[in-house]
Amino acid sequence: MPERTESESRKLLRRLRDTLAEPGAGQERLDRITHLIADSMRSEVCSIYLFRDDETLELCATEGLNPESVHKTRMRLGEGLVGRVAKMSSPINTANAPAEKGFRYMPETGEEIFSSFLGVPIQRLGEKLGVLVVQSKEARAFSDDEVYALEVVAMVVAEMTELGAFVGEGEALSALHQQPVMFRGGTGQEGAAEGHVWLHEPRVVITNPVADDPAVELERLKQAVDTLRISVDAMLTMTDGQDTEQSQVLEAYRMFANSRGWMRRMEEDIAAGLSAEAAVEKEQSAARARLETVPDPYLRDRLHDLDDLSNRLLRILTGQGADTGAEMPADPILVARNIGPAELLDYGRRLKGIVLEEGAVGSHAAIVARALAIPLVIHAERIITEALNGDPILVDGDQGIVHLRPEETVAAAFRDKIAMQAQAQTRYASLRDKPATAKCGTTIALQMNAGLMADLPSLAGSGAEGVGLFRTELQFLIRNHVPKRAELANIYSGVLDAAKGKRVVFRTLDIGSDKVLPYMKRVEEPNPAMGWRAIRVALDKPGIMRMQLQALLRASGGRPLAVMFPFITEFEEFRTARQMLKDEVERERRLGHILPDALEVGAMLETPSLAYAPKEFFEMADFVSVGGNDLKQFFFAADRENETVRRRYDMLNASFLHFLCQIIERCAETRTPLSFCGEDAGRPIEALTLAAIGFRTLSMRPASIGPVKHLIRRVDLKELRKVIEAECKAGVTNIRAGVVNWLSKQDI
Length: 748
Ligand code: PEP
Ligand code: MG
Description:
Layout: H1 3-21, H2 26-40, E1 45-51, E2 56-63, E3 74-76, H3 80-88, E4 92-94, E5 116-124, E6 127-136, H4 144-158, E7 181-184, E8 186-189, E9 192-199, H5 214-239, H6 244-257, H7 260-271, H8 276-291, H9 297-318, E10 332-336, H10 341-347, E11 353-356, H11 364-371, E12 376-378, H12 383-386, E13 392-396, E14 401-404, H13 408-429, E15 436-437, E16 443-450, H14 457-462, E17 466-471, H15 473-477, H16 485-499, E18 503-507, H17 534-540, H18 542-556, E19 561-568, H19 571-590, E20 599-605, H20 608-611, H21 615-620, E21 623-626, H22 628-635, H23 643-646, H24 654-670, E22 674-676, H25 684-693, E23 697-700, H26 702-712, H27 717-729, H28 736-745
Parallel strand pairs: 9-10, 10-11, 11-12, 16-17, 16-23, 17-18, 18-19, 19-20, 20-21, 21-22
Antiparallel strand pairs: 1-2, 1-6, 2-3, 4-5, 5-6, 7-14, 8-12, 9-13, 13-14, 15-16
Helix pairs in contact: 1-2, 1-4, 5-6, 5-7, 5-9, 6-9, 7-8, 8-9, 10-11, 13-26, 16-18, 17-18, 18-19, 25-26, 25-27
Bound molecules: phosphoenolpyruvate (PEP) and magnesium ion.
């Protein structure tokens, strides 16, 4: 960069910093900034547009345009040149603005007389805040150096924390970070919680975006990068030879840490007048803006790597650790961009709720949150930027809604909801030791689903008769290496101890699809749910399953053992898997280990094809459990992870019930014990329907046992069966309304 512009932009930044340091009301400061930039860039106009909401930009300050239009001129994202800069997150530089694609004439601003236009995005860590524009009458394109200088200025403007407060009807609103904000995300785990924000990784606060002495800043950057490289190398040495996947990620980190391009860009930023930390953040923002639009998942993963590295670098430079000294509130609601399952387990049940910017229903964090029964909202966009440690917050996991710094009226209504839920829980607790016997005398066995040792206390608390589904993959997902056989045997044995003689059904590893092991080579599949997963992986690469079966046999130590194979699609798969288990039993016998007292081998029915397997399959299986989550997605061809179609079809669809009845009949024919362990088993109306059509064992999350039992005990299942049959006969598509009507007639 030429020396002249370098010092020009430094001069501009210094003036900007002085302006920012002067006292003055928000609007006045913003006006001074536009004045200063216009003056320094020798352009007639400088304007700042900020986002009012996700879609709308508002002119918030201007030098040169009609002052009357401030807070009145608004445009949609993508509309006009300003809207396009915001949408693409990249500059537009043109000598002839009116001839430019997307130009929008706004008479109130008097804009038509300006020919040149340069607009750059104002963004902070990929979050779009607005657009900074300079315009001049003279038809000239701005030089690369000028574009760069304006970008640097936009970076400093983005650091003004009170920026969002300028948007309004001409008046500066009360400071940002004090107003109530509502976030609409998705449900990760149901439940409601009230508490205070605990940021998993508090963001680094940059207090000195502008620096006087580039030489000092360059040296600081160099030293920080050296420290960073050393720490990455140290991490690599620690994993040496042990864990190839982990070291691959670290190799990628090392590649970034040594990247010349990255360094060079930061050095240029410093030369232009930014402090070392501001330079790191500017490049982090730019990389996010670039990579966020990239569809390639590999590259997007690298974005996370770069993000992580930049955060580390910022922490080194500012001395702000992840531990800021802030004290964790007594009722912490964890707020994070994303979190790994192991980290979540570290927090454990201390957390009252969790809110993630990213995450997915099937993500590992969601699985752990579910296991711990902590309300979780996912996809709460921008919450990281809004929330501060200690802010009051309400999490509504049922609706997928979060209220940050809520109004008192909202908080009061929310507390009523929590109180009602607690009241219901007390009522259910009184039923704990009573059977789920319906009025007609039919008793339904209610069992619980589990996956972690942390789940086991619920066995006594909920009154579950046993564990109908123990998802063993969680133990694999929360580690960054394959667990050892002894480690697993220890855990399984602990589970059996905690179950105190109640039956536990261990499902062998169900990986693939949404459950990806961090240390397993990821196979890119167009349709992972229908791809290489569960028993298919286990049969093709039997090493891990054999090891797991050995661990289970050892854990039983002479106690009864129930093993279930997931995702069986045809008889042959079950026969082979069962044989593998029998072989392992033989091997254990030869080695002189104690064998299980009784061994049950079952299959999960999760694909429609298994319902039509030969009779021999049903004879061979010691039990069958319907995995309704998967079965439903394949029956209706509707992805269980896809929010658009997930709720479109319902278990109470008459065709699906008809299909379930066929499964019940097939099992009855061979007297094969049958259960249902998908999420629907824990939803009261669905559970009631399953019981009415003939399921005698239901396995669900522990918190559902109370409500389901309460309902079953109040109805006559034989009567309900008649209602369902009549509905189906009448050609009704979905029997939900029929069931609900029938219940309400009895005041239930
Ligand atoms: C199911 O598919 O219903 C099931 C219980 O298994 P998972 O949810 O673990 O796939
Ligand atoms: Mg399943």
